[in-house]
Amino acid sequence: MGNLATPLSVQKLQTALHAKAKENPSFRFYALYDKLYRADVLQYAYACCKANQGAAGVDGERFEDIEAYGLGRWLGELAQELRNKRYQPQAVRRVFIPKQGGRGLRPLSIATVTSYCTSRSKQLNIGLLLHFT
Question: At residue 132, does pLDDT exceed 80?
Answer without folding.
Answer: no
